[in-house]
Write the structure tokens for this entry.
Amino acid sequence: MRRLIYLLPLLLFVGVGVAFLRGFDRDPRDIPSALIDKPAPEFSLPPLPGHKEGLSNATLKGDVTLVNVFASWCIPCKAEHPIITRLAREQGVTVRGINHKDKAEDAIAWLNRNGDPYASIGVDLDGRVSIDWGVYGVPETFLLDRQGRIRFKHVGPLTPQVVEEQILPMVKHLRSAS
Amino acid sequence: MRALLSTTLMAVLLALTPVTASAVQPDEVLKDPALEGRAREISKDLRCLVCQNQSIDDSNAPLARDLRVLVRERLTAGDSNQQVLSFVTDRYGDYVLLRPPFKATTLFLWIGPFVILAIGGVVTALYLRGRKGAAADGPMTAGGDTAPLTEDERRRLDALLRKDKA
């Protein structure tokens, strides 16, 4: 029994070591959103020139919606763009965009070049609405239920893995739930 | 010659630049020094989420600038310091606070070190008491906690010592 006490420091060290080792697998950029399960913030954004519809709370109700914050100057946005296009065109997910701190002509040129899968886009020129959404690194993607509540958030470019393992099951669940 | 001139000019300019860690730009500063002071104080407690170990007061990231401007706007609108902080945490969560709040989920963070210190104290006290108890049994000499020699051992020791002398 007394001898076990001498093993205690070793056990403590192993415990701390395991805790630190697990830390390696965690992405420090992955900060839990404060808005999960809360209604989307009150906002109303104008459309890009030449487009009909902008983005506001009213547009986000009724269907499960993916809201993607993007910009033409953002390189990872280009990387995730085919994945978002596939979600919209092949999986039938309603995707809407927030164009973050972008010049209108740049955004339009970018959409012409890369394709426009967005059902509608709101222009957030000064980034204020993005702050209301808790955005800190473009691209960011939110999944909203039919009531317009934020149910899931992904920071950084979408990957096929995130889509397969998280977004598509969640879309299915949210559509059947209500 | 021109290169020398421009290097000298750069050196002089650098030497004249006031050394400050803050990233606050002149156009952000509020006219009211009291309000600006509060804004600086709040900004130092808010983490910049882009470069996570800097406060928004230190960071040059565009988001940090936006948040600094936002903090100043809220203050000008008459918010208290606490209202400004909750405005930001409502959007970004407790993670933006460089000083984590004291609540159930952060209990171990705040109490943990003191708990470990207390455990260490108890273990040390027990150890010291154990040692004193052992010492009280016999004379305070080296090897005082071993049994004294038996009659037989003493005779053998004497014999060995005598052999050495001879």
The first helix of chain B runs from residue 2 to 16.
